[in-house]
Amino acid sequence: MSFTDIEIEYLSGQRLGRLATTQPDGTLQASPVGFLYNEETGTIDIAGHGMARSRKFRNVAENGRAAFVVDDLASIQPWRPRCVEIRGTAEAIAAPIDSAWASAIGQLGFDGAIIRIHPKRIISFGIGETTDDVREFKINKRTVG
């Protein structure tokens, strides 16, 4: 398994993340996107309105690379940031048969296309911490897959 149980719990409670892809000219594109953790594939599935026509979808189709971050503040007093960063290979899938979004696509009006991220490097911070002192938080980083 790529993700720890606490990372899966955190990701399952979030709905918005930031996807970074590389454009053909080498510049980076960062986009806020909706996502779901796909238990069956152990991947992150990203969907949205007009996904198949989007620049981010074409970027992934052209080079198969992506990074993705989900973060929030558990509290501001004390300061408790949390995040999971995922670096990996990505697929632009026009008509997936195993999308984590399958049951919601019709309701949300999405075109069904997804970007699927296969984790290769995972970095998490502030998740499952028991201390209130952010300076004592441990960074969990590892290569997977």
Brief write-up:
With 145 residues, the chain is mainly beta. It has helices spanning 5-12, 55-63, 105-108; strands at residues 16-22, 28-38, 43-47, 65-76, 79-93, 114-125, 139-143. β1 and β2 (28-38) form a beta hairpin.
Could you characterize what this model shows?
- It is a single chain.
- The protein is mainly β and 145 residues long.
- It has one domain: Electron Transport, Fmn-binding Protein, Chain A (Pnp Oxidase, Chain A).
- The protein contains 3 helices and 7 strands.
- It has helices spanning 5-12, 55-63, 105-108; strands at residues 16-22, 28-38, 43-47, 65-76, 79-93, 114-125, 139-143.
- Strands 1-2-3-6-5-4 form a 6-stranded antiparallel barrel.
- A hairpin with a 4-residue loop joins strand 2 and strand 3.
Question: Key features?
Answer:
oxidoreductase; 7 strands; globular; mainly beta; 46% strand; 145 residues; Pnp Oxidase, Chain A; six-stranded antiparallel barrel
Overall 3D geometry? globular
- Helix percent reads 10-25%
For the biggest sheet, the summary is: 6 strands, antiparallel, barrel
- Residue runs with pLDDT of under 50 for 5 or more positions: none
Report the span from N to C terminus.
8 Å
CATH names the topology as Pnp Oxidase, Chain A
User: What number of domains?
Assistant: 1
Mean pLDDT: 90
Q: Please identify the top-level CATH class.
A: Mainly Beta
Instruction: Label the structural class.
Output: mainly beta
- Summed up, the helix count is 3
CATH architecture: Roll
Strand percentage lies at over 45%
By CATH's scheme, which homologous superfamily applies? Electron Transport, Fmn-binding Protein, Chain A
Say how many strands there are: 7
- Radius of gyration over alpha carbons? 16 Å
